[in-house]
Amino acid sequence: MAWLVLFAVVIWFILFLSKKLSFSFGLTPKSVEIKPLKGLKKLCDNLEHSLSESYMKNVEERVNKEIKLKENEYKWRLLDLKRYFILTSLLKESPMFSEKVDELWHQMLMFTREYGDFSKKYLGSFLHHSPNVKELSDPDLRGFFDWVYSELFIIRKENIHLYKGFFRYPVHPKIIDEFRSLPENQLIDLYFKSDSKYMSTVLTLISSMKKTANGVKDYDKGVVQDKMKKSKDRKDYNAMLVPFLSVSYFHYEEFSSYMKISSTSSSSCTSCGSGSSCNSTSSCSSSCSSCGGGGD
Fold first, then answer.
1. Alpha-carbon distance 32 to 84, whole Å?
2. How far apart are CA 5 and CA 262, in angstroms?
3. What are phi and psi of 39, to 5 degrees?
4. Has residue 279 got a pLDDT over 50?
5. What pTM value is reported for the model?
6. Is the pLDDT assigned to residue 151 strictly greater than 60?
7. What are the CA-CA distances from residue 89 to residues 145, 194, 259 (Å)?
8. FRET label pair with 66: which of 77, 109, 238, 288, CA 20 to 30 Å apart?
9. 65-101 as b/e: b if 16+ CB within 10 A
10. Which helix (H) or strand (E) holds 73?
11. How far apart are CA 99 and CA 296, in angstroms?
12. pLDDT tens, 245-265?
């Protein structure tokens, strides 16, 4: 009997590995595919204008020499790096959860002067690429990151692949409660940059997240917290939040396919990030540190 189980595990692993290796990237959209939030298009336009054509051409040439990529993969990585830069302009904490996207960020940093010019033109200050300061990733931080990402951008299979799944970790019940009950100014103090040039987008994002939090069905804080304490992987809460989000935020053939992809991978973040550090109770400090280590 034991050898049958071992045989089944080996077959499953081979099938999973072959599926992963055979993943193909489709054509990239003409834009970063944002949601219709006030000021978000202007933010995206400012980002694009901050990235000079000559700079990005040099980056692409370097990447093609240094990294072996699949067809269309570079453009998808670049699209998600642009999305990450958008997040850094809005959030107090901006962890990097994709090893593949972070690899492209590293290549951009090789052009020191051009990267500095981009940072100052886009944010008004240098966008730091911070070293890892924690041994373990913060599942609450990843859950919050996925939620914000889904509020801002359309998610396709290529994005799922680059991040090795979304919503594998739940958004903490405390965070849901805060977006349901706290006023905008307190939420900004907790999660967003108070000096952002794009405050209109921050306010619209908060409004959208409040609507999502209020729309989560069958929510019972006590029950959820009890389940999360008993569950080692803390997936139970996903059953409440993810189905609600899937209706509005995922443009993918079948949401069940997305869940299968996300359930086969780790969601720990890479060794790099930007912004301040947050703990699981959602209180944030202003130190410049990244999320927990471990590659994805």
1. 11
2. 24
3. 85, -10
4. no
5. 0.73
6. yes
7. 14, 10, 29
8. 288
9. eeeebeeebbbbbbbbbbbbbbbbbbbbbbbbbbbbb
10. helix 73-88
11. 6
12. 443 333 333 333 444 444 444
Q: Tell which residue, 229, 219, 192, 196, has the closest CA to residue 207.
A: 192
Q: Answer with the residue of higher pLDDT: 94 or 179.
A: 179
Distance of alpha carbon 294 from its chain centroid, rounded? Answer: 15
pLDDT 10s digits, 49-78: 999 999 999 999 999 999 999 999 999 999
| Closest listed residue to residue 244, CA positions, set 132, 142, 167 | 167
pLDDT of 182 higher than 90: yes
Q: How far is CA 273 from CA 45, 119, 190, 269, 288, in A?
A: 23, 15, 18, 9, 9
Helix and strand totals (H; E) in the chain: 14, 2
- pLDDT of 105-132, one tens digit each? 999 999 999 999 999 999 888 888 865 4
* Residue boundaries of the structural domains of the chain: 29-275
Give strand ranges (E) for 69-222: 93-95
Candidates 7, 162, 139; CA nearest to 77 is 162
How far is Cα 31 from Cα 78, in angstroms, rounded to an integer?
11
Which position has the token pair 């990447």? 63
> Is the model's pLDDT at 176 over the cut of 80?
yes
What is the distance, to the nearest Å, from the Cα of residue 289 to the centroid of all Cα atoms in its chain? 16
Coil, strand or helix: which one is 102?
helix
Q: What is the CA radius of gyration of the chain?
A: 19
